[in-house]
Amino acid sequence: MKLTSTFVLAALTALPLAGAVHFILPIRPVVTTRLDPIVSTHVHTVAGASGFNWNYNYDDLIKSECTTAVIPQDKSNYWTPVLYHYNRNNGSFTAMPNGFNIYYLVRGTDVGDKVVAPPKGLRMLAGDPNRRTYNASSFADQAISYVCLDYDNNHAGDPDWAERPNFFTHQCPGGLRAQVFFPSCWDGKNLDSPDHKSHMSYPVENYNGGHCPPSHPVHIISLFYEMFIQTQQYSYDGPGTWIWANGDDSGYGLHGDFTMGWTDINLLQSAIDDCPNMEGNIPDCPHLKAVLDNDAANACRFRGNIVNEDIGDQHPISALPGCNKIWSGTGPKPTCNPNPPTPGLTSTQQPLPVGWTELGCIAEGTSGRALTGASTVDPALTKAKCATFCAGKGFKYAGVEYSQECYCGNSLTNGASTNQVPAVQCNNVCGGTAYDNCGGPSRLSLLQKTG
């Protein structure tokens, strides 16, 4: 299953962040599935560490092979529900592509609070998947909002385009930006709570600033999600066109989840303490600039298990995964009778044909192709498909490159060798799976038949 992500780095216009010392993590999803250690009844798109699972702790998380965050030391997970397009004509649902910006904002120092990094293993939830109304005096409700993007026209002063707590009633030409601001005051004791909220609190003065109350005295760095959803790629057919994965058609049920996985908390604390001129760009802070690694983030793939079900990311589906009927109005969530069957888990990794093994990432030939025996191009290529193709042609080597190119040979030619280059250089996602890499620019993921 594959959900294409689109990343958009937005300006601070229309956000409650102007003037804040902050840095922005551009981050792509690592997995989309119905696994979730906090709220597990509907499909979420998850960014960050590749070790995401339905049941894990901080020690598990920091052992993740990689992260889609451009700071390798950040092995946190950040996730939100998937937004679906509902086609009234045939009753089908399609998962819409999305991408994230994660803001870390130093808020609270202006009122005398000491701002610190989140504690190891902190979990928290912002928003409420079951919320059906808006309370203007509730900081928790104010922390959930939407912006309708239009990069070609100015809608200033038009109430139909103003930032709001629920879905817009018109198309968004540049896509929809869903926003979640997390509580930044911790009780100093509990890393989680039964409702995933009580151990946290919003500041006294505002949801996005002020000092922490005595009940939650530890002021952690503020966390804010921007989720960019490519709604403009689909028709808008009036209210009810956009449906969150839990069935919500109002937008009030947007929520975000976070599990703290920074492996080097001192690094994050140094950014808080020593980089007062941060204005969004990671290189603004020397501590973070020194470890910035876009190649590693681009190469990171989830290799664990996912729920064995169609989530509608490749084609429309007839129903939302799980018991998640369309939920309109302020009444209780619709139930299912009978409940849909509970699917099992399935591996994201496709085994190679018997007798084949992966040697690693190698450089292409210096004066031509490394493998010259046979080749094919397949938009749905996987390593297994390439190995099968080459085996059928009688070759012992198979190499995948640029996501969809497959090359075969019985020897490496034109200056190529089996000497490996860093694995992050093979960072092109396979055309046929979102969970593996198939070579890179002038780089081959090399496979060999050994048996």
What descriptive keywords fit this protein?
mainly beta, 26% strand, five-stranded antiparallel β-sheet, globular, 451 residues, 6 helices, disordered N terminus
What percent strand?
25-35%
Q: Uncertain segments of ≥5 residues (pLDDT<50)?
A: 1-16
How many H/I helices? 6
| Mass-distribution shape | globular
Helix content: under 10%
- Rg on CA atoms, Å: 23 Å
The averaged pLDDT comes out at 94
Count of DSSP E strands? Answer: 25
Order of strands in the sheet with the most strands? 10-11-15-7-1-18
Distance between the termini: 30 Å
Q: Which sheet architecture does the biggest sheet show?
A: 6 strands, mixed
Content-based structural category: mainly beta
Task: Give a quick summary of the entry.
With 451 residues, the protein is mainly β. Helix content is 8%, strand content 26%. The chain has a six-stranded mixed beta sheet with strand order 10-11-15-7-1-18.
Write the layout of secondary structure elements.
Blueprint: E1 21-27, E2 29-33, E3 44-48, H1 58-61, E4 77-81, E5 83-87, E6 92-95, E7 98-106, E8 115-116, E9 123-127, H2 139-142, E10 144-148, E11 176-181, E12 185-186, E13 200-201, E14 218-220, E15 222-229, E16 242-244, E17 255-259, H3 265-274, E18 279-280, H4 286-289, H5 294-299, E19 305-307, E20 345-347, E21 356-363, E22 374-377, H6 383-392, E23 397-401, E24 405-409, E25 443-449
Parallel strand pairs: 1-18, 8-14
Antiparallel strand pairs: 1-7, 2-3, 3-4, 4-17, 5-6, 5-16, 7-15, 9-17, 10-11, 11-15, 12-13, 12-14, 19-20, 21-25, 22-24, 23-24, 23-25
